[in-house]
Specification:
Layout (H helix, E strand, L loop, with lengths): L11 H5 L12 H28 L8 E5 L8 E5 L6 E8 L2 E6 L10 E3 L4 E4 L4 E4 L5 E3 L8 E7 L2 E8 L5
Antiparallel strand pairs: 1-10, 2-3, 3-4, 5-6, 6-7, 7-8, 9-10
Length: 171
């Protein structure tokens, strides 16, 4: 059996393809309504997913980790430690005989390591000249957008224990 071509000048695919070029430019009400309903349903599902995730979000539980003994660090001295995980470095500074502060060592600009400058009494980020207050972690100068995360310390007997991180407090 041999296939014969039609004498028509139009290609065969044009006969089999049911959409006419003239009708292609127009969207009828049914198609538009279907599009709106499906888009609205998709947005509803997305918003419900975000709502469920936010309701299930719980505050992180930080471990209590002993950092140092009282008097172990001299006044103006610094001790580096890791908290809450082994990959998170922090600095504890003794600012007065009975006052200790601790902050994450990651700059809030581009995560460079901050260092304590005892001469200037501030935490400095050498990457982009960002400076933070030792007293409360607030930005003193430079590009960092937020204060340093403060490590919450508790005195338990003669030990200083890290018990949490305050991400949004200044002072």
């Amino acid at each position: 059996m041999m296939f014969q071509r039609r004498p028509s000048s139009d290609p065969l695919w044009k006969d089999e393809f049911s959409v006419q070029a003239a009708d292609e430019r127009y969207v009828n009400r049914r198609q538009f309504s279907k599009f709106l309903v499906l888009t609205s349903f998709g947005l509803l599902v997305g918003n419900l997913w975000i709502l469920i995730r936010s309701l299930r979000h719980r505050a992180p539980v930080y471990p209590a980790v002993p950092i140092a003994r009282l008097g172990e660090i001299p006044i103006g001295g610094v001790k580096q430690f890791r908290y809450p995980d082994a990959g998170d470095t922090c600095l504890m500074i003794r600012t007065a005989p009975d006052h200790y502060v601790a902050y994450s060592q990651k700059c809030t600009h581009l995560s460079c390591a901050v260092i304590y400058s005892q001469v200037n009494n501030r935490l400095e980020c050498p990457c982009h000249d960002g400076y933070f207050s030792v007293n409360d972690g607030r930005v003193l100068q430079g590009p960092p957008p937020r204060p340093l995360p403060k490590v919450m310390l508790e005195q338990r007997g003669d030990e200083l224990v890290a018990v949490g991180i305050d991400l949004n407090a200044e002072g």
